[in-house]
Specification:
heterodimer, A: alpha/beta, Rossmann fold, 11 helices, B: 11 helices, 2% strand, globular
């Protein structure tokens, strides 16, 4: 069944500072959409607005999960996750003093996810053999790349239908960035997910994205209806890539 | 020399039994302080409340002290949830918990203690049951029932809680909640609800700890103060967040205290216990099994 996400005219910020100004975007069923932009343009705020961690001053956010529509504005973060929207936050936000396995099992806290826990755990260990090797290690003692893998796997343990990923490449070596992005594609296909990914690394994100939005100073500056459109756009070259 | 050896054996054995009881009174703080980062300094006062409830049940209604725990356990669980709710609304929600939260529990300690004095007076109280006197004779050593029963109850309770924390979703969430509340929300769990449950459990252990205490010794309202330092020392010594570490620390402290008291006199016991704590922390700052 189809799961999609639509944001209409979102205005959001912190106190008197307005970060998002009338942002509208949509992620269609089964799509991977990239949210592109450099630091400080509002990517994370947009992600947090969807997850109920920042309350928008205006606008609506509608998530359609397996054919049923839900308005997300006004709901708590835990309710939104419980609906089937998973989030891999910037900085991973793992539980450092719990083991890899304990982190993964916590991912399946959502009642809907509990029945499939064994199957999903197997899938995560199959996709990330490194996590299986380190299953009894404390999450806080792992390398950045391994932690990012764990953060992705933990979000998948909640059996989401829509997955939001905030800056998966931050703090990773170039080779690891490429591998992480490839894994996201693999997971998306394996779980039949709808994905919205915020990313600074334009070339890597566009490799797996079906479409993309470029956000500049809290506004959608450009909508690329295909990866090629993003790649070949003069505006992006000029403003975003600086070339 | 013969006499010394048997004295030592009996000091070690009864020290281990005492340690099991220490684990029973410390496990509540191992949850609240070790896992939730809430310094509930009033915990011993609620253990004493548990003792007095067992006392009333025993003297007024003639109920066995252990049996009365079945009734007081859920009541204490609810009381703990209520205490957390007050603490949450008044302090935690406003990010005010560190210093004012501590004074809240100090206040709670005094109110509970004064309340107990007003109701029960300052006389020593005790309960009647077959296991309050008498020994289990194992040939080599004699185990006093009044120490053996709390030991078994204490370890059974800690074991049950350990299984709950390691094997259930709520249990794992309790272990995670102090590490990153926002991340816990992303697991679809409400951190406030998780903490409320954990704090309820912490209080519930005081019901059993209290019954164990009045089985071991006659009690009066200010006796709880002796336990504040000891309980927090056990939790820190064992390593915050680790039940197995806490049990090892409790047994160690029980044995060390008993040996010291037997050979050098009871007044040395606290000094030696805290010496053990300081030396352990110098070698292992995170405690015996701390993560």
């Amino acid at each position: 069944m189809a799961s999609s996400l639509t944001l209409s005219n979102i205005v959001a910020g912190y106190g008197a500072v307005r970060v998002l100004d009338d942002v509208s975007l949509s992620v269609g069923a089964g799509e991977t959409v990239a949210l592109l932009g450099t630091n400080g343009n509002g990517k994370s705020t947009l992600m947090k607005s969807i997850m109920g961690m920042v309350r928008p001053a205006a606008g609506t956010i509608t998530a359609t999960i397996d054919g049923t529509s839900h308005e997300l504005v006004g709901r708590s973060t835990e309710e939104i996750v419980d609906l089937g929207v998973g989030f891999v936050p910037e900085g991973r936000r793992l539980f450092p003093k719990l083991t890899v396995t304990e982190n993964l099992l916590l991912g399946a806290f959502r009642p809907t996810a509990r029945s499939a826990i064994a199957k999903n755990l197997d899938f995560c260990f199959e996709t990330f053999p490194r996590l299986k090797e380190r299953s009894n290690q404390l999450a806080g003692s792992m390398s950045g790349g391994e932690q990012q893998m764990l953060a992705l796997a933990r979000a998948l343990m909640s059996a989401p239908r829509i997955l939001l990923i905030d800056e998966p490449s931050v703090g990773l070596a170039p080779l690891l960035v490429q591998r992480t992005i490839d894994k996201i594609k693999e997971l998306k296909d394996g779980f039949n997910l709808t994905v919205l990914m915020a990313e600074q690394n334009f070339t890597q994100a566009v490799r797996i994205a079906d479409r993309g939005y470029v956000i500049v100073h809290g506004k959608i500056a450009f909508t690329g209806e295909s990866a090629e459109a993003l790649n070949n756009n003069d505006l992006i070259r000029e403003f975003y890539l600086g070339a | 020399m013969e006499a010394d050896a048997s004295l030592l054996i009996s000091a070690v054995v009864s020290g281990l039994l005492l340690g099991g009881f220490y684990a029973a009174v410390s496990v509540g703080v191992a949850i609240s302080f070790g896992m939730l980062d809430i310094v509930n300094i009033a915990h011993p006062a609620f253990i004493l409340l548990g003792s007095y409830v067992a006392f009333i049940g025993n003297t007024v209604f003639g109920i066995d002290p252990i049996l009365s725990v079945m009734i007081t356990l859920p009541a204490f669980y609810l009381l703990g949830m209520l205490a957390y709710q007050v603490y949450y609304v008044a302090f935690e929600r406003r990010d005010d918990q560190s210093l004012r939260g501590l004074s809240f529990f100090f206040g709670l300690l005094f109110i509970a203690e004064v309340g107990l004095i007003l109701v029960f007076g300052v006389d020593y109280r005790s309960v009647q049951a077959w296991y309050v006197s008498g020994n289990l004779n194992l040939g080599v050593v004699e185990l006093p029932w009044r120490l053996l029963v709390p030991f078994l109850l204490g370890l059974a309770m800690v074991g049950a809680l350990q299984i709950f924390l390691a094997r259930t979703f709520i249990g794992r969430a309790i272990q995670a909640v102090a590490q990153d509340q926002q991340a816990l929300r992303l697991m679809a769990a409400d951190p406030t609800k998780i903490k409320r449950i954990a704090f309820g459990l912490s209080f519930a252990t005081a019901a059993l700890g209290g019954a164990a205490m009045i089985i071991i010794q006659p009690i009066e309202p200010s006796i709880g103060r002796e336990y504040i330092g000891r309980i927090f020392a056990i939790c820190v010594l064992g390593g915050l967040g680790s039940f197995p570490g806490m049990v090892i620390a409790a047994l160690t402290l029980g044995v060390v205290e008993n040996i010291t008291a037997t050979f050098f006199g009871p007044s040395w016991a606290p000094a030696v216990s805290f010496g053990v704590l300081l030396i352990t922390l110098a070698v292992r700052p995170s405690g015996i099994l701390g993560r």
